[in-house]
């Protein structure tokens, strides 16, 4: 198998033409490597992957439009700010929803899709409170094989109906290559769970998908391992990756996991990718979800993913950490105020979310664009 070699990056001049960028990419590909052209507001950078050994910078130095050829000191490159200085903003065609922009993205919904009624009821609540994204697993990675495993494709169909009725964008988990194909077809964002953060074949498959990927941090992953997992996805050509902190394993037993909020500024220093926070799995306790959501927005997270259930005590999974709809509404009001301090926004409540319904949101591939 081919080994990844010394990371290299070609930085183009600010006024390099598209033609010059194309020539450099063609040169890279002609040498048997892969070129990743990442446009920025100031300049374009071209990452090279697939090189087993160090490439001779002289090969590119003299090409028109090339500013410099640099060796990247970190093991990751496409995720790094070396490649792209400014924040990546992931937008969804024909909607005003985004990750990484001024608005703090809010994803809310049940842990698992249990029934059509449960999903539609929850969706109505969270959409009215201002969420633009709906979560809910159709495939559940459960610790016990005897626990509820999800409704599979029937669950995905319910999610598609949620999108149609309420104009919510759908975020749902793929647990293997087979489910990824189906999730890609029905959802707007493909979630890769904490337990799969280092499932490299799944990451590569997600890298070939044409929908953005929400990548959760593994329970014991370092920042470098987390970013390398994102690099796997990007190296296959999918640059729309959203990172998610969801708590790590520690000795503490007052919460299900320890929510590591300091990873947010740590990642933001190193990477241009958006990073959101999951205070539901990060605490495992309903009474801690709102306080940690406030803290996550205050620390600078680009979004929140929150579990909400109309009847949490009867939920088939994660009821103890699921908010009642009224609690979610109150949470939204609080984070809206906190966001202002950081010159950011949280979407306002919507009286009639059915009215914004996007037959306009494409159910098919290619809905996202990186800025
Ligand atoms: C989930 O979002 O329901 C989930 C299973 O999360 P995680 O992968 O973070 O445990
Ligand atoms: Mn859950």
Give the spatial strand order of the biggest sheet: 13-12-11-10-9-8-7-14
Counted beta strands: 15
The unique ligands bound to this protein are:
phosphoenolpyruvate, manganese (II) ion
The unreliable regions are 359-371
Rg, Å, rounded: 21 Å
- Compute the number of helices: 11
Distance between termini?
A: 34 Å
* Major sheet details: 8 strands, parallel
Q: What order do the helices and strands follow?
A: EHEEHEEEEHEHEHEHEHEHEHHEHE
* Average pLDDT for all residues: 93
Instruction: Give the helix level as a range of percent.
Output: 25-40%
Notes on the structure:
The chain is α/β, with parallel strands linked by helices and 371 residues long. The strands form three sheets. It has an eight-stranded parallel sheet with strand order 13-12-11-10-9-8-7-14. Residues 359-371 have low confidence and may be disordered. The chain is built from eleven helices and 15 strands. The two termini are 34 Å apart. Helix 6 crosses helix 7 (223-235) and helix 10 (286-299) packs parallel to helix 11. The protein has helices spanning 18-30, 58-61, 116-129, 153-166, 177-186, 200-208, 223-235, 263-270, 279-283, 286-299, 325-341; strands at 8-12, 34-39, 44-49, 66-71, 90-92, 98-99, 105-109, 133-135, 169-173, 189-192, 213-216, 241-245, 275-277, 303-307, 368-370. It binds phosphoenolpyruvate and manganese (II) ion (MN). Manganese (II) ion (MN) is lined by residues 111, 281, 307, 317-318. Phosphoenolpyruvate binds next to loops.
